[in-house]
Amino acid sequence: xxxxxxxxxxxxxxxxxxxxxxxxxxxxxxxxxxxxxxxxxxxxxxxxxxxxxxxxxxxxxxxxxxxxxxxxxxxxxxxxxxxxxxxxxxxxxxxxxxxxxxxxxxxxxxxxxxxxxxxxxxxxxxxxxxxxxxxxxxxxxxxxxxxxxxxxxxxxxxxxxxxxxxxxxxxxxxxxxxxxxxxxxxxxxxxxxxxxxxxxxxxxxxxxxxxxxxxxxxxxxxxxxxxxxxxxxxxxxxxxxxxxxxxxxxxxxxxxxxxxxxxxxxxxxxxxxxxxxxxxxxxxxxxxxxxxxxxxxxxxxxxxxxxxxxxxxxxxxxxxxxxxxxxxxxxxxxxxxxxxxxxxxxxxxxxxxxxxxxxxxxxxxxxxxxxxxxxxxxxxxxxxxxxxxxxxxxxxxxxxxxxxxxxxxxxxxxxxxxxxxxxxxxxxxxxxxxxxxxxxxxxxxxxxxxxxxxxx
Length: 456
Known about the structure:
- This protein is mostly beta strands.
- It folds into 3 domains: 44-118, Immunoglobulin-like, CATH 2.60.40; 124-296, Lipocalin (Beta Barrel), CATH 2.40.128; 326-455, Galactose-binding domain-like (Jelly Rolls, Sandwich).
- Helix content is 8%, strand content 40%.
- The chain has 2 helices and 30 strands.
- The strands form 6 sheets. The protein has an 8-stranded antiparallel β-barrel. A 5-stranded antiparallel beta sheet has the order 21-24-29-26-27, with no helix packed on it.
- The protein starts with a helix and ends with a strand.
- Mean pLDDT is 88; it is low at 1-27.
């Protein structure tokens, strides 16, 4: 019995010894992550540069750590010593994040810029994108739906055709109904601000339909998906110049078509054109570069056309011809069966327009020739309105929108067809665009019906 007990104790001792040795070896073999950065490591200092009090140099306290900066002005940078530009007076929160294999730490400071420095925004690209400091300081763009090739896709890497949608290019208005043409993108010089007004939805590539925040989707009538998406206001834009000049949008905002990125290469920028290229980020969509062409809101790149060289003229009764309108202020339109075939209007088809959330929302159609008011002074139309109020009609010249005239009439009876007569005897020569503002000075998203636009 003693011998057997001794053997058991000896075997147990050997097993315990082996386990301790194995555990010690295993612990020694584990990699060490090291100590995470401290708050002292995340500290930083800053000073104005000799160039300008609005160009600030920032220095991280610990230069041995990876450093990421958010300058509070819409721009970011990497490195232990960096510079940021603040053209406009204000208070900005700057955040430094440092990291190593053990973790990360962050700190923030507020800096105050005492006054504007206009020289820092004296950039031709800024002027084209925003209207410039000598102009309004902001510019609103929309997808160029009126012309062929406003949207498409080509290869990545770029093929022999260059930066061009050589694989597929949409025809004019081909994507109507996809919630692409209703979006408006406003670039502001002050604070490099950016607003995206969506009308409630955006156009999303099918492979990205599950991407947050574009996961509430429905099938588009013209391929891919529409994602429910509210207006994105108060964001910023960053222009990075180089061999490829890129435009980056902050937050959840995007431009034109969602394919996984908010950074766009500027292919071309002019007063009336902004063409962007962006690379699809989805692994299931390899080798795709998407293209979208924008124009200033209200600008028609294809005067008198609606795709295929087609032109429009008065009168318009919408029975067999459906002119192409351009919306603004977040309005939308479609051609529908007359919802009230009674009274003065028993026609079968009418124009339906839903008022946008801007008080000046409306839509316009370009004509193939200027209107002649030498003998026929009136523009007439029929309207079915959900409420009484002002209905404004504006006539303007496509090539010079400063040449215009506006006339207001009042809808006096709601929920019934009424004919309005607009006296344009004082209209200037050369006006070849009809602009209508149903529900002028209201922002309620109500539907109006319009029919039988004519000159008498």
